Amino acid sequence: MTTSSGSGSVRSGPLALLLGLFSNVWLGVFLMTVMFVYSWIGSAGLPIYVGGYPWQIDAWVFEQMRQWPGLEMTEYEWFNWWPFNLLIGLICANITVTTLRRIKLNAINLGVWMIHTGILVLCLGSYMYFSTKVEGDSPVLRRRVVATVPGGATVDFPAVPNASARAMGEHGMYSFFVSGVDPHWTLLSGPNKGQTAFAVQVTVDGPDDSRFMRQLIVNEPDATQDSIFSDGSDGGPPLQRAIKVLGRPLVDEQLQLSLSYAPQEWFYLANWVEKSWALYLREQGSGPWIQRPVDGLPLYNDYVGSLEEVWPPEGERLPARPLDVVVPPSEPGDPLPGVSLHIKSYLRYAHMEQRWVAGGSLNPTATVRLEDRFGEPSEYDLVAFDPNQSTLGRGFLAMRWARTEDERLTVAAGSDPILHVSVPGVPGELTHVIDALSIQDPDAPFIDVPGSAYSFRVQFMEKLDEPGLPGSIASVELRQGERRWRRFVSEDERFIRDVDAGDESLTPTETLTLDEGIVIHFHAPSPSAALTLVGGPGADELGLVMAMGSSQDGSYLPLALGETISLGGGESFSVQRFAAHGDLQTRPAVVPRRYRNRQAKEANARVRVQFDVAGELHDKWVSFHQYPIEGPGETMRRYWYQPTQVRLSDGRVIELLLSRERLPLPDPVVLDDFVIASHVGGFTGRTSSILNWTSSVRFGDGADGWGEAMEVSVNAPSEHAGLWYFQAQWDPPTGPMSPGDPGSEGLNYTVLGVGNRVGVGVQLLGSCIAVLGMLYAFYVKPILIKRRRRSAAAGAEVAA
Predict the structure, then answer these.
(1) pTM confidence score
(2) What residues make up the domain containing 239?
(3) In terms of domains, do 447 and 410 share one?
(4) Total domain count for the chain?
(5) Residues 471/463, Cβ–Cβ less than 8 Å
(6) CA dist., res. 122 & res. 99, Å (int)
């Protein structure tokens, strides 16, 4: 056979080689194998042998390679990454070329063509789906309380337990507090008698010291009534209905309270689908949050430039990984226009914690460990100069500081108050046991300091137990010739100061320059403790004095860090850390991986944010919030509000928090009702007793109204304006979460899952075509082949 030069070049040229490659069945086998391995690694993880018999499951761990530093990919991102898309494209090209070149289109091969076409359509639909995928969630409150006080001022606040608000009226201030919410209130009268409804109890404190509680019921404005608080002196109940006491249902008829919908306009993208971090900031008291989407922030691993920034996890290695993610302004109204925020560190699971760090001023601290007879350890921090932290267990354990060797025993074993007085340049130190006070005996003599013109006497001593105060303080009257003044002295040298002798107050408003010509140390009286940890006078000297009825009682026992002292009965004592000079520092404490709750996801994440304003560098840790709640009065149960505050040099206060990127909903959504379908026996308090959760929601109709109610449940999503809504979370009943919290019966809000489904129809079409092709190939094709063989056999017989 002869061919032209042109056709010969095509058959042997690069295009022919490429077509030959992609029509090779073995290329398809290879690509499918690669895709299988890629999918295995992305879903199940990379199997790593850790020891033991290889055929046992415990001998292997599955490492999620996509979560490694440098990748930081969710499963969705892994399967939407360019290598996977390229792999799918190559498989589609292989199927297309192989089908066109090697499989003739006829009735026999129609099933194969349909299968291949279905796969290609399925791939196209999947590309449409994943390239446009959006998924998140939206919290929707059930109701808000709207209060209009006499004078026209109006405030609104969430109808959730513990919510509060204040409003100024023409007669004074009104305070409102949601003292209770009952989602199953039984109506006792009216046309709906016997039915249940959502009821809210609001405690009102009026400007005339009036106090009452108003009950509001959804869709039942005529049932609104007040109850008056009573002290019970008349023998009546603590709450009495106003209609019985006053003859009218409302105490203050000018005060208007009502329940309204709580429209939600946003939904928040899910980090588990695709990393969708965002920083939110605003000027304090200025209005809604302004978001800055964050691109490039990791998700699974910790990134810190220096280990000095954090408290590293115990028993685990935390490598230093520098990070610098730039977050520029992206929305109008940003309080820091032209200022980029820099995220310098990211922690997946950490909480802020205060710990003592060696260095700084004299402030002796120690961490001690007590083990009981069962070997269970307990650790405690002691601070010698802090009266609230210098003792433990009602005086069982105490920590003191001795400035001299002679002071060790007197300090530890319990002593009288002592002054140690010295004059720089004059040898020796005067030790004075305080046995007289001039406030009690005005004729008490002044005591001369040998070798100097100074003399002194003690005016009074005071024990101060308030946090932040030195514990015990002494007022010392001083003389030097005709000059007189007073000095406040304490064991904590930060509180030593000179004041005018005429100022008799304990907290003088004016202080004098400290006279450095005389030095006074005060040792406060202390009772004997069973164990007294004694530090000093050297920075590394530490000892123990015991008073436990043993032969060693009263003796100073030098103590080394980690040394275990037996206390008898199987109990023991040791010092894990000691520092004479220390500062209390607050850093994030990284939780070891073995203690992390995987279900918490990014709930405990935080970032270190730096930014420069007018030449002043600000550096703050910012914690993650599930939602950027507008304020402390807007919190929903189980979600907190703790923004980081930064004070600028111009006096402004900027609030920051880390959350997820938000997108606007096509129409605002409100929660009309929430229904729980339970198994036989009803809701028992356990999730397992619930059959289904259903939110009845309404969407804005564009005319300041609300459309028809639409039910959304876990396995029955509903569509509106191109987005699908499903039940994602709910508000379960909870007990009191803090002192004064009334607890909650739940059902105060719902969390709707929100997502799109672009390309799903194309995916279903591709699947149907492929299935029909399989049916054709397995059931129709054999019939056609049999008929063809019979026809061929019949033709052969005729020819014979």
Answers:
(1) 0.78
(2) 145-260
(3) yes
(4) 3
(5) yes
(6) 16
